[in-house]
Design brief:
With 182 residues, this protein is of the alpha+beta class. The protein contains three helices and 14 strands.
Length: 182
């Protein structure tokens, strides 16, 4: 189960880089430290299959880059997370630094795990919405579905739950064949 470790003051990147490389996922959301166990094998399998399809359509066509966890994404001074997949199109490439991504990406994909479900569906969804992430996918490995949220007028709009195929709403001509994922 994901666990918040309260801090006396808001934590930032200078604290984040001091966390041990212990096989668990460390994140800071609104200045609080969250720790999650390593993902399950199904989690990693589905994430990789989505990543490969995005890679083929985005990186192979030189339109942008696709990063997988663990990649640090610093959205603010007090929000440092490690989404399962991060897509950054060429127009936003300047947010990619040698050590982390610092800024708002084009698409974030989170694959649910029992320990991260609440964080992914509530806490991180609200964070990504506040930080202006144009599109957010929540992959449910048990239900074999992807919930798609698209930012419209500063708020996420639920675009649907997909089981067979999903098109990226905010990036032209990118589609993931979910039959190949499950």
């Amino acid at each position: 189960m994901s666990q918040a470790i309260p801090a006396k003051s808001k934590l930032g990147y200078e604290h984040y880089v001091c966390y041990p490389d212990d096989g668990r996922r460390h994140e800071i959301i609104d200045g609080d430290h969250y720790v999650n166990p390593a993902p399950t094998t199904n989690h990693q399998r589905f994430s990789r299959r989505i990543q490969f399809q995005l890679y083929d359509q985005i990186e192979e066509t030189e339109r942008g880059e696709v990063f997988n966890a663990p990649t640090d994404l610093q959205l603010t001074d007090h929000d440092i997370v490690q989404p399962d997949l991060i897509v950054i199109m060429r127009e936003r490439r300047l947010i990619i630094t040698p050590t982390k991504i610092k800024g708002t990406p084009d698409l974030i994909v989170e694959v649910l795990s029992p320990s991260t479900k609440t964080n992914d569906c509530v806490l991180k969804k609200e964070l990504y919405e506040r930080r202006g992430v144009p599109e957010y996918w929540i992959v449910d490995p048990d239900e074999h579905t992807v919930e798609q949220f698209v930012l419209r007028d500063g708020s996420y709009v639920f675009e649907g739950s997909h089981a067979k195929s999903i098109a990226v709403a905010t990036i032209e001509n990118v589609r993931v064949d979910l039959i190949k994922v499950w």
